[in-house]
Amino acid sequence: MKKKPTSQSAFLNLRVLLGFVLALAGVFLARLGFSGFSNVSAQANATPEAQQFGETTVIRALRSDLSRPLHDQPLVWPPAEAEHEANLNPKIPHQHEDGPDPVIQSTLWQRTIGVPSIPSPLLTWNGIPYPGVGCNCAPPDPDGEVGKTQYVQMVNEGIQVFDKLTGTSLLGPVAITSIWSGFGGACQTGGNGDPIVEYDQLADRWIISQFATPSGSTVPRDECIAISQTGDATGAWYRYDFHLTGNFLDYPKLGVWPDGYYMSANIFNTAGTAFLGPQAFVFDRVKMLTGDPTATSQTTGITGGSSEAPFLPGDLDGIIPPALGDPNHYVSFPQGSPLIYKIRAYHVDFTNPANSTFTLEASVGAASFTSLCSTTRNCVPQAGTTSKLDAIGDRLMFRNAYRRFADGHESLLNNYTVSANAVAGIRWFELQRTQPGNWGIFQQSTYQPDTTWRWMGSIAADNQGNIALGFSASSSSINPQIRYAGRLATDPLNTLSGEQHLFDGTGSQSATSNRWGDYSDITVDPVDDCTFYYTNEYYPTTSSFNWRTSVGYFRFAQCTAPQKGTAHFIVTACSGGAPISNAPVSIDGSPYGATLSDGTYDAVSTPGSHSYFVSKTGVGSQSGNFSITNGQTTNVPVCLGASPTPTSTPTPTPTATAAATATATATATATATPTATVTPTATEAPSPTPTATATATATATATATATATPTPTPPQIALAAQGRLIHGQRAADLSWSGATSNRVDVYRDGVLIITTRNDGFYTDRIGGTGTGTFTYQVCNQGTQTCSNQATVTF
Fold it and tell me: Is the pTM higher than 0.90?
């Protein structure tokens, strides 16, 4: 949890005031028609919030809708708050028995390596700085994720979108509240931190979340989750508010899996004084990718009680999904005597929730260690100050990275902070399994090569099994720095082969309740599956509230991109050929993604033969096969719904080509013989081709043939427009559907004003304050295929 001021009552009063101001702003925007961009399900759902099915509780979203594009959202800038002392993250009460650490990496081996194989950064840039877009709080909770072309970073309480290659800002930083503007409820007015951003590379979508405090509560109980409508993080978002508990929901962490978005949380009583246990949740990924308001969350409740160690869900990396039907794997912080990692399998069934299970699938031995800062949070030293930092050594660090490799074996990577030779070291470990089989320890080690303190780690592997571990580093002689270490897959097991500096801070943190982090984040580029991106915090000067964040990337020279190709799905209606959006696509039985507004969806997969299934409720479904060639794109045309019925002219006018006498008596008969191909292939769409044949018979034997050509129905573009004021200036919010080009032409009063992305939304900032009427049309780019005319009057 992100923050709490020196005075609790002052904080609550400020929160009430801020909530009141934002609520008034929401009412004002609603009166201007802003809510026209949110569907009716943004109001509280009428169905019961939660239902019980056996051991599973099904939780419906309190609210859901589709936002306007983030680049067109009103950018919410909260009023400046006083600097907030960090709220103590309640400690997890482990019953740990300290023991000698038998897996500390040998400093002798480290010296024999020579030149480290870990590469230096290719690029670093400044991330979001304090105050985190109006948060004025600590710690920043920095995390980030890399997509096809963008890098998205989040902190308390800001978000920023960068070009992933150059670090150039594409949007922001803006307040996270901007995404929830106009949504209402706790997500709009009670966002409380612990932000997480994920990239779902199967679907090419972004996921962001943070917990929120509902009105009348003093602790977070809701989880706010938004899914990008496309692969562009600056575009529109499907938004959901789930009320998950009546207790204190702390430290929620997400993991992407084909059948769901899985989450873990540490549950405390509302006073934050008693740990009740860890709890697992899962959200309906397939429905949330299409903005379906009926999407639900499931949970089997708190696991094990207050004596149970916290856990993290598996988070998918790479282009190879887990085996069909494989549950998500939650890994626990080591517990018991002797120490074990508990691995639990969460199998979800959204159709029959009573079949969902959360069960122990393996207990894997963990090497003993000594807890760090077991009786205090004040232990990591820094140069230039007597203030020390909290290493949060009571839990696994974000993320629990899962990868399935081409040879069939699977890997789970994670880390936590321990005491090693009287300083902080990072215990990292890799679990592996090969089917059939169960999880076992493959390698584990405590990285502590010298007397510098290392903590706040995050770990991941590239497609060839090379590993990178990012972390904070500090001591009484250096300010906190951002570093990383790594190993090649060919290095000796249980060792990291070198260390690099991503960014060296030039100041230390003082007087913020010793908080640091609460986490950092390393992720792998989904395009080359080799480049690691890492973000963490540092200080430029010694001060209490002045943190900064840095982002950088690097890659092992030995890594090469995996063999892969792209399946380009083109999903249209069998009748008329209109594009079909929000149609879920499964490949080889696993849910992958959903079609965009133009009916397309790109899935990256391994070379070879694959099957697909595309469906949309109320429209139809289709299955088939396609093949992937390395480095190539394969078009996969799909049509849904009933095939068109050919229309023939019963009595066409024949043209006689044979000679006939003037007195000849002719009779004409017409027969329509439709021929339609209804079985699609990977390279050819269904092509119904009606033909009508007319035969004329005269005394002189004349024969004529006429062909009826069906007239295609042009695509229909539906346009709606609504006026509002932005800072007192006139603006028109346009929303449309049915356009089929990648970009559209927008006309005002018959004049082209812009050619923009076909993402279904555009705000025309007309300007001026007077009265007036404006008429709009949206057309497929460069064509006369246009929408209806929509009028806005001020």
Answer: no
